[in-house]
Write a structure and sequence with these properties.
Low-confidence stretches: none
Mean pLDDT: 84
Helix content: 40-55%
Radius of gyration: 24 Å
Oligomer: single chain
Largest sheet: none
Number of strands: 0
Shape: elongated
Length: 72
């Protein structure tokens, strides 16, 4: 069996602690920018935009009768 740590190998040795820190920081910044901060265009977070879009598709308007969420 070939030694996987030979100099001809394509495997790169990395420090796992620094790799995990870097990956977690990248992921957390992605979540903050993508989900937690409101968009500058309309001030809505993605979750609120999805709710309003679903309400528009279901024709839920302020002048329509109240419908329990279990029926939707």
């Amino acid at each position: 069996m070939e030694n996987i740590f030979s100099k001809d190998s394509d495997i790169e040795l990395v420090d796992i602690e620094n790799s995990i820190k870097s990956s977690y920081l990248d992921y957390s910044m992605s979540v903050i920018i993508g989900r937690a901060l409101p968009d500058a265009r309309d001030g809505l977070k993605p979750v609120h935009r999805r709710i309003l879009y679903a309400m528009q598709n279901d024709e839920a308007k302020s002048r329509t009768d109240f419908v329990k969420s279990a029926r939707i």
